[in-house]
Description:
A nine-stranded antiparallel sheet has the order 10-6-2-3-4-18-17-16-11. Strands 15-12-13-14-27-26-25-19-23 form a nine-stranded antiparallel sheet. It has a five-stranded antiparallel sheet with strand order 5-1-7-8-9. Helix 1 (7-18) packs antiparallel against helix 2 and helix 5 (258-269) runs antiparallel to helix 6. Strand 12 and strand 13 (165-171) form a beta hairpin. It has three domains: 2-114, DNA Polymerase III, Chain A, domain 2 (Roll); 125-244, DNA Polymerase III, subunit A, domain 2 (DNA Polymerase III, Chain A, domain 2), CATH 3.10.150.10; 247-360, Proliferating Cell Nuclear Antigen. 17% of the residues lie in helices and 44% in strands. By secondary structure, the chain is of the alpha+beta class.
Amino acid sequence: MKFSCYQKDLATAVTNVQRAVSSKTNLPALEGILIKAENDRITLCGYDLEIGITTFLQSSVQENGGVVVSAKLFGEIVRKLPENSVSIETDEKSVVYIQCGCADYQIVGIPADDYPELPQVDGNSTLEIESGILRNMIKQTIFAISDDSTKPIYMGSLFEIKNKEFRIVSIDGYRVAIRQEAVSCDTNSKFIIPGKTLSEVLKLTTDEEQNVQITVGQRHAVLQIENYSLITRLIEGTFLDYRSTIPETSKTEFIANTREFISAVERMSLLNSDRIQSPIKCMVYDTQVKLSCSTSVGKANDTVLAHVTGENVEIGLNNRYLLDALKNADTDQVKVSLNGAISPIKITPVDDGGSFIFLVVPMRFKS
Length: 367
């Protein structure tokens, strides 16, 4: 194998692909990046048996071939090379020769045949969605993914396509995050993508208008993001019927300025820490939401002006869970719906046809 390409392009591709490389494995090839050169382009692949990231670069290929190189070592070398043309070639013993400017390296590689094949996804279900929209949908729901390994089904987000509406749903037992968009997709399907994969999708996507294509198979899905192809294992199991958790009516509603609400909650949060946790008390009445927090450190009070309808209510909420929901609301104002002190609160846009729904389970006060 012998090819040359630009250092900057190679460094970017290696950095992105490297995130899918396994750090601890009994298979040495999986600790490396597979490089293949053919037809005036090189393909790079990282794979940890759960997530695989593949990309290609246009290059000048003098000799076709392939090799597996240590992801950590190769990545560090490529990123520290001068911004110049990089020449890479291998010999029959899989020794890799790297030359750029006055710098040159010889590193030991692994034959490309030792690298495991990525799963083939022959899915009938395909969704195309604008990159920026998908990125926002994931950002507004990923915070509610569970990290509890005893319930692996909730360590990912549900992707649901039904009646030309696309929803992403995340649940961790204390909150629910739902984001929806209209799509021009005629098929109905649902599948669960791991949170780890969605974190990688956020790093690969941009706010541009280019489309991302999602192809779903029986056990895997492939996301085509520009010149990157990300294959992921799907989480198997039955996801909670999230629709049954959404309150259809409410006894109390208030509309508040999102930024002002966030600032007030952040001020109350100063008395909480990882060691000290006390609920923020929200008292909703008349034209205001009065916030208070009391811990062993001290006490704090604040008030947010709001348009309140319905019954007066007093409820306790986890400050971090409330902040996560408010900070992921992309509207100037939010509508908060309540059904008493022990039912989850619902946060939505003021417009009834809004695109997000956040639920937060209340905390009980210590007597």
